[in-house]
From TrEMBL:
Pathway: Cofactor biosynthesis; (R)-pantothenate biosynthesis; (R)-pantoate from 3-methyl-2-oxobutanoate: step 2/2. InterPro entries: 6-PGluconate_DH-like_C_sf (IPR008927), 6PGD_dom2 (IPR013328), KPA_reductase (IPR013752), KPR-Related (IPR051402), KPR_N (IPR013332), NAD(P)-bd_dom_sf (IPR036291). It catalyses: (R)-pantoate + NADP(+) = 2-dehydropantoate + NADPH + H(+). Residues 3-136 form the Ketopantoate reductase N-terminal domain. Keywords: Pantothenate biosynthesis. It comes from the Bacteria. It comes from Pararhodobacter zhoushanensis. The keyword Repressor does not apply. Pfam families: ApbA (PF02558), ApbA_C (PF08546). The keyword Membrane does not apply. PANTHER family: 2-DEHYDROPANTOATE 2-REDUCTASE (PTHR21708:SF26), PROBABLE 2-DEHYDROPANTOATE 2-REDUCTASE (PTHR21708). Its EC number is 1.1.1.169. This is 2-dehydropantoate 2-reductase.
Amino acid sequence: MRVIIYGVGAVGGVLAAALQRSGTEVIGIARGRMLAAVQAKGIRLRSPEVDEVVPVTCVASPGEITFRADDAILLCMKTQDTRPALDALRMAGVTDQPIFCVQNGVANEAMALRLFPNVHGVTVMMPATYLNPGEAITYSAPKFGMFDIGRFPGGSDDADAALAEALNGATFAAYVKDDVMASKYGKLLMNLGNISGAAFGPKAADKPLRAALRAEAEAVLAASGIRVEDVSQTDPRRAVHMKTGPIPDAPGMSNSTLQSLQRGGSVETDYLNGEIAMLGRRHGVPTPLNDAMIALSVRMLREGIEPGSVSLDETMAALGIR
Ligand SMILES: NC(=O)C1=CN([C@@H]2O[C@H](COP(=O)(O)OP(=O)(O)OC[C@H]3O[C@@H](n4cnc5c(N)ncnc54)[C@H](OP(=O)(O)O)[C@@H]3O)[C@@H](O)[C@H]2O)C=CC1
Ligand SMILES: CC(C)(CO)C(=O)C(=O)O
């Protein structure tokens, strides 16, 4: 199996370097300063236990790759960047190779299934950072991260097993699941607080806000009849595989939405809190708190508000949260 990592950033950067260093053939697709840095020097993979520069073949677009039947394509970009990436894959000749959505939220799989027949979901449990070009950091050890993998909309097949085997050989813990979307909905609940970390800062005392966002979303998911599997800190696999800790001379741990804002990019909020707002509208369940988080993300982008500079106290008071 050859693995194509589409979107070499935090998650894609760790995956590309870890798979390549374990002997899997990898091609990365990157852009901008990350592309230039990886082509010049490779990927510096950092974790609490590893600091290694790994050379990885990296190109600017799928059009530069002659796709093979044994390719597994891993989408590792933010959801707002998925649709053009799928178009580029199709124009490059991809047909029925497995496409794995190694992404947060639950919208990518349906987007991919519109264009391709062989789509898989992956739940990503890996606190990863990309702030400096050419560097991908995971704060997790002894495994770099943990993944649930399965076919979309359900079931599992040989492609899931093959990817899990490659990942397990590359210092990850990977599990094949027949209902991977239940795990991905569980992860979605955790990501409703991403915009909070981005607006108020990674150290803000925002537990009550996160709990309220989650409770609102749980009511929506229950009304929608969606099965949810808990993959939060209480998932016992985390204690075995994912002990997170600081890394000397590395940036502190932060969520992917904050990193997007710090790099001057767009945010994924419409596919995180926005998924809950959309389901709420469909099923007649009000979602004022998640709506407020979406409005906050729009305000931050429109007004160029510095990440971490919004007042948590004022926001919680306005939302009636203590
Ligand atoms: N970071 C984390 O800790 C975690 C992230 N996730 C999820 O994983 C997914 C990826 O997140 P993350 O790794 O943080 O994202 P990043 O923004 O760090 O990485 C994505 C990379 O893909 C690049 N990219 C996007 N579109 C293209 C394209 N068409 N061609 C080439 N490169 C492209 C982006 O470039 P550019 O920078 O120019 O936009 C960026 O470098 C998201 O869904 C996220 O929510 C899940 C768990 C943890
Ligand atoms: C759970 C968390 C916050 C881990 O980094 C994540 O999924 C993200 O950053 O998007």
